[in-house]
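Annotated sample (chain length 469).
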Amino acid sequence: MIERLLYRRKNKSSHLFSVQNLEFILLTSMGNSKDRIKFNVGGRIFETTSTTLANAGHDSFFGALFDDDWNLSPPKEDLFIDRNPDCFAVLLDLLRTGDLNVPANIPERLLHREASFYGLLHHVRTAKWGPFDGNRLRLSDSVKGIAPGDGTAVRAGPDGGCCVAHGSVVHVFDWMLEEHCPINLDYQRVNDVGWIDSDNIVLSACEKLGRGDGGMGLFSSSTGDLRYKFQVCHENQVKSYTAGALSFNQDYKIFSSCKGRSNEYGIGVWDQITGKQTDFFYESPGWSLGDADKLQWLNGMNCLLVATLFPRKDNCYISLLDFRDKNMVWSWSDTGSPMAIDEKRVRDAIAMEDSNSICVVNEFEDLGFIDLRMYGGSVRWSSRSRLMKSKMPDEPCYPKLALHEGQLFSSMNDSISVFCGPDWVLTSRLRRSYGGSICDFSIGGDRLFALHSEENVFDVWETPPSPII
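Output written by the structure step:
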């Protein structure tokens, strides 16, 4: 047997393997007696190895059984787990092979529940679809008619779920697309929504938030309960405010554009963990922040992009704020010649740190780029990345931008275009005829969610797993 395996291996690789090395590989894959572990799951006996269980990771149920070196003294009796044995068999096979094979008699909901108990949901997700790639995305599901009226925004969750804002209500879905308790702000319109983690969502709205002064709150994604409100304090007084665009950084900070009762504008900063205000940037004369439509934290530059866009403001304004010295370090405005104004009516903007530029899209669905190394530089409109024109729908939606793992995404009416390479060449397009124009889309948890303007349909796009060779 060893001779046959050695022959096959030598004919598939240029490397030479000795019989001793192959024997070691076989012993490692089969596991020795000291490495073997027995589980009694719901009355059925399973035998595996610590090497297999190590694939679950330290944060899993199995990781809690071992020390930092994945050592476990073999118990005198089998480890008993009072859970479903059929699902355990599927999950154990997933740890062994990396493939997910679910028998027809096991409901998907049951398997997901068991995977959550063992801390293996990420493994199940990874096995179900491959790493995110905009050029390989396939439509996997659509969810229809969850609320009356037009949708406002869709936000992808970190675990593959999403939330959808409709007026004063936010509908929350887990990664199985099962809806949790909705969040209702009592007729206060939701301006923006963002995920802190898989358990917590931040909503921005008008002052009072429907439940007391303050325009922003942290809610449970599973129960919809308000956990705490974010207050704005100035000169030891709590101020009423309307919260707008949201952004987050790696230091557990929340940024929100704020508007006071007397039309004073600024950017508030809060701690995600405590909910306490840590900083505030007030608009100064000559710094036309306005009621910002877009915030984006730039990790490398340690700055916050603030964009006030058309048509909220005739002259679009984009700036970078450095909170370390309360200074605006870069800005751009579309003020210029009358002929250039129409061309520069920016609908959305996104910073691209790798190329030191900001990408913008105008009302004609053209892409442009602003060099961050030039203060107040002009827009370079790219003909190579210009969106292809198509028939305008009855109710067109404003284009939006997203950047994910080196790929640029731009929604245009009823489709989303994907651009790649240094020249941002159009490489693919995601289109779904049902649901009308796309009013918003979001990428996260290895999924793309696209919210349509008609019947509140949102589509779910995933990357198929790579074929087994």
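Annotation: Helices lie at 2-12, 19-30, 50-53, 85-97, 108-118, 121-128, 338-343.
Annotation: The first helix runs from residue 2 to 12.
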